Batch of 3 targets.
Target 1
Amino acid sequence: MRIGIVCPYSLDVPGGVQNHVQDLAETLIALGHRVSVLAPADDDAPHPPYVVPAGRSVPFPYNGSVARITFGPVSTARVRRWLTRGEFDVVHVHEPFVLSVSMLAALSARAPVVATFHTAMTRSRAMAAAQGVLQLILERITARIAVSALARKVQVEHLGGGAVEIPNGVAVARYAAAEPLSGWPGPCAPGSGGTLGFLGRFTEPRKGFPVLRRAFVDLAERRPGLRLLVAGPGERETLLEEVPPALHDRVTFLGLVPERDKPRMLRSVDLYVAPNTGGESFGMILTEAMAAGTPVVASDLDAFRRVLDGGRAGALFPTGDHAALAAAVGPLLDDAGRRAALAARASQVVAAYDWPVVARRVLEVYATAIEAAGGVAIDDAALGDVTLGDGTVGDVGMGDIGTGDDGQLEEQPG
Amino acid sequence: MTSGATTMRGMWSVVAVVAVVVLVAMYVTWLAGRLDRLHARAAAAARALDAQLLRRAAAAAVLAEELAAPELYAAARDALDAAPGEREAAENDLTRALRLIDHPAGGPAGEAVVAASRRVELARQVHSDCVRDALALRQRRLVRLLRLSRRHDRPGYFDVGDTTLELTPPVPA
């Protein structure tokens, strides 16, 4: 399949949508598809070969943070040229409601458009005001994907219409194979040692870091050798607020770690703690820790409970309760067998979030969009590990029933 | 002097009226084009859904033969042969019949049924969205006033329940 993917945010800065787009593109390429990613990026900045830069981006406040976006006549021309040259079978735009190349591509594409909604935008007043404009964009989109049930709910309630829920993927193999940081996680025995991990913005209240900090302080006073490994943006002083000076050398702060070092950090701890107090629409960090083979202790939020298979693939504690967290962590650090059991169940659960599995579900949506635009059924063989243009047309038990142009995708030159 | 000003004013009024007429005509043309596009989209989505339903019923028939399950075979046949008015009920019956089969995913025939069911669900969702968009535009006052949609049949939803057989991987809220 020839697939054009459009990312609204600059690839020069890290971000969830950008990571998602690049992982998806790389997985689809590995599955034998031809993928081009259009995204704002500096022309001279290094980027992967499948990326087509859509020009420099400007800062734009969006959804509580600053996104770098590209919009305007120059971008429009670049989007059109990219669409024409790509001759895509399907165009996959991410966050098409952001003023960006995604929106431009959705409006100009002739190929069927699939759209993925990442953010659960709960503010509906702006949406209601712009309803007419948004409807014009929606009419250009054939199939919609939401990465979480929350994002899907917004689709259904505010925009009408359905969206297929396909979760964020995680590159399981990359996480599972990562080398722990040297000297970590260190000894962990009944009654002593052990390392707890936290990754993310510890200054953001919703992430619940203070809950973990209090639990750590309580436990560390009783448990010699217990350590805490934290990575994320912020200052060490802020991190260590309310931590007694005697315990300071047992807290290691890595600062902001680049995306490629996340797996190593997650492999360097005995337990990953997700003390979030709410607002998390998808437990991405949980699936990452699970992929890394690190047992997880998480707040009992709906989203987390679902990822953790009701508590079988990770321990749950009442949200915001630091004493309960300490009570859950202590026995787990004493019990290597239970940690291993949680990690084993987690690795089974996380297989459903592995990028190749997720990408195949996305491919089914592509096929549905192509079919709906053309009024035909195409063959599933085009979705799997089939290199384009090899001409195999598998007949999936259709017998004597013709469904139109089966295998029409293969007829087009790869 | 006065008559000159009146003439000027008269000319400007004419220009204004012509401009408004042109703008309205452009808007109506655009609206008609949009209506055409949405109806064509809904019709194509309906054909794709039809193809996926046939594919599912055929896959179910193959599975029924493999398992020697006459009820399932009959349900598949009914879905294939159903008259337009009975199609929704027949497809729902087929979904029910498929759910009665234990572990349909075992073996290639079972897997084909599970995959086809998933694709029916996707096609149905896309079709519903297309129909909803077309119906919403048909409801517009101007569209009804000018009877812009008279050239198009009113698209209808295909009202069947969720056809997926296996629980998809747990999706976090």
Note: Chain A touches chain B through 50 residues (CB under 8 Å).
Target 2
Amino acid sequence: MSDLSHHTRYHPRWYRRRMSVWWWLKNRAYSKFVLRELTSVFVALFAILFLWQLRALAHGPDAYAQFTARLKAPLFLTIDTVAFLFVLFHTITWFNLTPTAMVVRVRGKRVPDKIVAGSNYIVWVLLSGIVAWILTRG
Amino acid sequence: MTERLTPFLWILFSLGGTIAAFLFPVHLFLGGLAFPLGWLDAPSYEALRGLVQHPVVRLYLFVVISLPLFHWAHRFRYTLYDGLQLYHLTVLIAVLCYGAALVGTAVAAYTLWNLA
């Protein structure tokens, strides 16, 4: 993420080669970076879907039944599958970045990256289990 | 103004990213795949209405919807900025992204308030 240097319309022109908008396809690492950045679109998509479900819930049993029926349509199942894969990619890249973003020290010694990232995965499994238990206990 | 807002927006980005990382896969897997496909029994309308009566559940739902929207706003803003090189639209993109997250937050608050 670049710092916002202010662009002005009548900026003095220095020599700059035009970059293709597809610069990120030329290199695997760049493609991975752009895919990672695009996970945010699916994060937002799911947040909106979740909100939509709550609105259906607020509108009564009929509206909610209509909503759940819609989720069974192939279009929604496809969207949800793609969104799930992107959200999973977000989770993995986010967890693996934590040791870089947050250095944990115990008695002055840096906790190894693998332990910091690994503890995220343990908490993730626990939280997922709790959510699944609450929603499926009947 | 923007200089003072940036750290705050970055905190929202990182909180929202953390919440989405921990909780979105399970909610998306259950709500979007396991329940519609019948792999698991979906909770009934009455059960869900009962669940959202609890203020802690409503607070949870508010946070789980609102903060990831700000995560999206912040990240997507820079994706457009860097990816599509829309340098002259910086202000418009920022207003649209954070504005959309604010609207989503307001709708979430209103919906959850009325669900009680």
Note: Chain A touches chain B through 58 residues (CB under 8 Å).
Target 3
Amino acid sequence: MSRIVGIDLGTTNSLVAIVDSGIPYVIADPDGQRLTPSVVHFPAPDAPTVVGHLANRVRALKPATTVYSVKRFMGRRGADIGREETQVTYPVEGQGNGPVTIPLHGRSWTPEQVSAEILLKLRRDAEASLGEPVSRAVITVPAYFNDAQRNATIKAGELAGLTVERIVNEPTAAALAYGLDRLKEKSRVAVYDLGGGTFDLSLLELNQGTFQVLATHGDTRLGGDDIDRRLTAFLARHILDAGGPDLTGEHGAPPDITLVSRVREAAEKTKIRLSSETQTEVSLPFLTPSFSFSRVVTREELERISTELLERTRAHCLRALSDARLQPSDLDQVILVGGQTRMPLVRRLVSTWFNCAEFEEQRGDLRLGDEHHRPSGPQLNTTVNPDEAVALGAAIQAEILAGGFRNLLLLDVTPLSLGIETFGGLMNVIIPRNTTIPAKAGELFTTAVDNQRSMLIHVLQGERERSADNWSLGRFDLEFEPAPKGVPRVGVQFEIDANGVLHALARDVKTGHQKIVEMKSAVDVADEDVQRMVEESVANAFDDLRARQWIEAKLRAGETLTATRRTMADYDAELDPAYRVQLHQALDEVEGVLALENPRNKTGDPARLKAVTAQLDEVTRPLAEYAMDKVMEAMLKKKGLIQ
Amino acid sequence: MTDAYALMGEDRRPWLDPEVLKRRFHEMSGPLHPDRHHGAAEGEREAMGKRYAELNAAYSVLREPRDRLLHLIELETGERPRDIQRIPPGTMELFVEVGQMCRDCDGYLVKKGGATSPMLRLQLMQAGLEWADRLGELQGKVRAVGEGLGVELAGMNVVWATAPAVGEAGRVGALPMERLEQIYRAMSYVSRWTDQLQERVVQLAM
């Protein structure tokens, strides 16, 4: 039987690793490269695909036939794909409950098929390096992947000729790689995993070789790609302002994708450079025959456009801690994984959220060092190679399955609650999230009317109360023997296997007859979401949109004016005279637009009002930050934490 | 019904040390976990998988004090406690306080959710700090109630140790089942309050 390799199938890069004589290592391709870009180029109909570095190089030249970040589309339905996400340079199709497909050269490719091309390349590289056929693999997925996304990953492996021996969660794999040398220890760690397209936060307890996941939380649509996209939009605006082509996509015709691709590539490189430098020059010569672009981008600018995105990961950190009933001070380490965690802002934010020891921050004149971040906090661990840890962990899990590492055991959890729909469209949880897997739970069903032959069971995954807000895994018909109501008894057993994949089994309690339930995939079910969106859009059409927008904008402007005046009065003595003038000007601008309200129909120009209010927000930002520091300082003083 | 205590080799009693129980779970997981039988024949693999899932379920039940008490009541009396919506004695005040706090805090959270400009957020920041303090204080109170119940449970262990053995006459009569049921109900409320308050703490911190 073939050896089992570990594969990290990433949004941006993929790797293959193996354990040899107890040591895990990443397998390099014939060119000596360990990282394979998850990029597939389709040169022509029926021509073989180009995968990895080569494909990445032609990406800017042939953007329409080069597929990247396909992991984002794995196991997802057309209706789930946001508009922003379809803004890739290759065509993406998929409506309602239909699967997402990529039409190229007259053929429809599924995300699984594209991923299989990447897996096939990794398999070939491993075979070349090991000198033997490879047909078995452990593949990693984001911890927060749902059932459909996990199944899609297994499918991709099968298409590449691999038996997928296990699906492992990425942060858990990273923890294995981290903990392999620490099998004697007892500690608690958080793994903060921010990759190209997904984010996970997992909390684990290492206990003499047993790795138990306590809780996990995440977002499968948040990653470094999103920062690239924002930086691309930022550059596109500056290109337009400098008299260049309109690549913003905000006005009229869609922009030239070849040009957008070039800007995107520059944005990604700029982002990476700004992790080590505080400013860098973006240079795009001859973007059009008559226009070249060049501009210095500072780290501060990049941070300003990324902060809001990164702040979103905080909620997941808080929820995971809350689920595990832990405080940051209960942790020993916060391990950073995923290429995006190289960004200094990520490290700074994570340190602050987890109260990491040996971390200091300066806000204005206030040093939030020793006192604010008590040394009892966990250590921020950046020693693990963020690109390789997941693949190494996958290889370790592969070795465990092959019978090695007898002193090591991984107890993982299911990230999402599993349940069924009950009366009133509510979800009834059967296996709660963060339950150790493999897990089983049963539910007993009976009939509500005489001679009822069947019942429709709707299986759901998610954390929301209403079933429509959760992910539908599918429906199945439960069959009964004809009998008076309430007499038949059929037990349904739900099992989540070690891969985090669901199986359902129905058993007639009277006859003991068992049957594996075939679930109809969610794809052919009417989509309530789409229905709801259609209804809402019709209802909105009858509203007077402009009037409503004006009222909302006016309300907000009024509140902001009052708050600004009050804060200015509170800190009047500390305000720089020039800044005070600037503030007054911004206030006057807003007042000016408000004064233009038509007294007859009580309506004005909402777009202009929003613009001047946004400008006021921009001007007041430093004032707000200053005042927040003062409030924080006052609170710390009150609690006796600082003098 | 599976006896989770028997499955994990623990004596039947209301209080279990969480650390000891966890160690036992890890020890028992080693030989049973599917990872250890990946290369075995399919039938054996399935059987092991089933046994591991049972162990897993037993640990889940015993780990949570509330679930453990429910299980213990069922084991001893043969039935689930009746479904009554009565607030346990001595907790009425806390019940009202938690409800009121959550409602008021939700009002603040709605306001905070709508504030997008720096100036409006500044206005709400002071209030946010005060909410966090108040929630923390109430969480402390709820925690103290839970800990008090835990201490009482630990004190009951001796009654279980000295009661007539399972199956012998007079066992149920010798056990303080009524008080156990009251503690079970109180613990249900404590865990619900803990969740409710924690949810606000999380939202406040976002």
Note: Chain A is about 35% helix and 25% strand.
